[in-house]
Amino acid sequence: MADPRHKLSTAELAEAGLSGWRLTGDALTATFRTRKFSTGLEFVNRIGASAEESNHHPDLTLTYPEVRVTLSSHDVGGITSRDIDLARTISGHAADLGVAAAE
Q: Rounded CA gap, 99 and 92, in Å?
């Protein structure tokens, strides 16, 4: 999974072991139950900072009481190691805030 331009196979995605994330077409998606709008906003801000740092940007939807995240590498038409790395970072932010992913 080292090549950030390599489109990952279904098997490679399964090996990544991302809890709370689903394969939806050519994207990874997760919905995080924030319970409060202010927590959702803090979560989105943390995701935004990490996305800027990695120069890889997810689609985000902030509503009460959840945040939906979609990750895809549009330049290769699918999921790459960049998406896996950012998904792990986002899951870490969720854990830090006590936010659970909807299963």
A: 10
